[in-house]
Amino acid sequence: MPNKNDISRRNFLKWGGLAGGAVGLAGSALAGFESGRDTSSNTGWEREKYGHGQFFNRKPFEIDTSPHEIVGATRRINYEENIFNRNRDLYQLLHAKDETKRWTFKNGVEQLPEPIKSYYTQNPAALEEFKLALNRAKKQRTYWKDVKKKYILADAWSHAHASALYGKHGARFPDEPEGTPEEWDFRGIQHEPLPFKSPGHASELIKKIAYSFGATLVGITKLNPDWVYQGKLRGVGKTQFEVPKHWKYAIVFAIPHEWEAMYANPTYGTSYDAYSKLRWIGGKLDAFIRHIGYAARPHVPPTSYEIIIPPLAIDAGLGELGRNGIVITPELGANTRIAAITTNMDLEPDKPIHVGIREFCNKCKICADTCPSGAISFDDKPSYVSRGYKKWYVNQDKCLTVWNTVATSHPRGCRVCLAVCPYSRKNNWIHTLAREMDPRDPTGAVATAMLAMQKNFFEYPDAQEFLPQPDGSDATYHDGPEWLKTEEWCDFNTNWE
Amino acid sequence: MLLQSTIMGPLFWMLLGIIQLAFFVGLRLFFKDKGLQLSWFRWSLVAGWWLTTNITVAAAFTLIGENESRAGTYFLAFFGIGLLIGGAALWTFIKKPIKPVNK
Fold it and tell me: Would you list the domain boundaries of chain A?
C-alpha cells in the first residue's frame, strides 16, 4: 500500500509542471537576454548573407508624390554653402604660405575672396562660429594629452579607417577625377554598353552587385539636378557647370557604422569606418559599371562629391529625412551612411517611401535635446526653407564646433544624434516589431506609446555631459565596447606616452 | 552565446517547448484539484496571460541584454505590475463557477 507522503505520478506531473512554469519563464528571460546581446542583430551586421533578415518591405509604403516639401523656387546648392568647402577655403587662407595671400580675422570679411566673401557677409554668425571652432580645436589638442591613455585604442581604430581615405602614396580609392566628367566618367570603356533585357533587369543586377560589394541598402533614382553642387567640379576646379547629360540615374547605397562604437559616440565612434567602406563599395561599383560599357562616377565621403546625397537617398526610397538632418532608414535608423554613383545606364528607379518618420520626428526631439552643440531645431514641424525646400534647421557651424571640442585627438565628428535616435536600435525582435507596427498604424498610437517608453524608460546623458571637463564629463551615449577600452588591454605602469 | 550555438540553440528551443507543455499539464491538474472547471474561453484567457507574461519578461531581458538595463527594469516593473493585477483579476474570474446554460 503506498504511503500517503509518497509523491504520486499525478502530483509529480502537477508540481513538476508548475515548477516548469518558473523554469520556462527563466528560459524566456534567457532567450530575451541573448537576443539583446546577439551581435548579429547589430544593424547592418547580420550573419545572413546580404542581411536579408533585415530588409524592410518598402512596397506598401511607396509614394508617387515628391517626398520633399517644395515651397518656392528651387535651385542647386552653391559650393560655398557646403560647410566643409567654405571652411577649407578659409583655413587655407588663414595658413597660406605666401604672407601676401594670408588672411586673418582682423582683415575682415571685405578682404576675403569670392565666393566665401559673399557667403560670410550674408552669414556673419557662421564666421564667428568658425573662429570659435578654431579656438576650441586648440583646447582640444591640449585636452587630448590628458585623455590620450583612455582613448588611444579608439583613436588608433579611427586612424586606421581614415588611412584608407587619405592615402598619401596613391592608395586613395576610388581615384579622384581628373579632367571633365565627359572624359573621366567614360575612361577605360572598351566596348559597347552591355545590352540588358530591360531597365528592371539592369537595376536588379546592379543592386545584387552592390550587395556583393558590401552595401546594406541600395536604391535607384533619376538624378534631380537640384541636388548637384554648383561652383566646383572635381577634376576641373572651381567653375560654373551644367549637370552632365550622362548623369541620368543615381545608384545610392548605404551602410551603418560599426554598431558598438557608434553607440558610444562621440568618443569611441568614428565616421571613418563607414566612410572607408563606402569608398570601397563605390570604387568597385564604378569599376564594374564602366567594365560593362557604361559611364560611372562615384560620389563618396568624406568630401568627394558633386551631389548632396541625403535627398537623393530619399528619392531612391531608402528612408526619410530626420530632424537631425540625416536620412533615417527603417533598417538602420539614423545610423545610415550613404554614397552614390551617377551613371548613364538605363535603370528602373525606386519610389520614395513614407513610413511616418517625419511625423515621429515632429514629436520626438530626443536628438535636439541631447545635441551637445544645440544645433538641432526644436520646431514642432519643419519650418526652415533651404533653396526652396522646407526642412528642419540644423546649424552646421555649431555642430562643427562640437567636433572641435569633444575628447578626440582631432575634430572627427560627434554623431551623438545618430546614436540617440530611437530608430537606431538593434535588429532584434522587439525593435523590429516596433519598426513594422508603427508605419502600419494609422492612429499614431504605436508611435505615441513607443515615444513615451523611449523618454521614460531609456537613459540619455544631458547634452552638456558629452563635452570635456570641466564643462561636461566626457560622456558617451553608452559605455564603449570592451575592444576599444584601453584599460582592458594595456598596462600603463610603464613610461608610455 | 548559448542560442547562437549550432547544437545548443535548437536543443534550447525544444527543451523550452517541452517545459511549457509540462507547465500546462501541471496547471490543468492544479485547477482540477482546486475544483475548477475551465471552459475553452477561460483556458484561452489563461494561455493569453501566460504568453503575455513570457513576452514581457523576454522583452525586458532583451533590453537588459542590449545594455539598456534601466529601460529593461522599468519595462518589467511597468508592465509587470499590470500583469500581476491582470493575473489577480483573472484568478478571481476563473474561480467563479461557470453558469449552466439554460436550454
Answer: 40-489
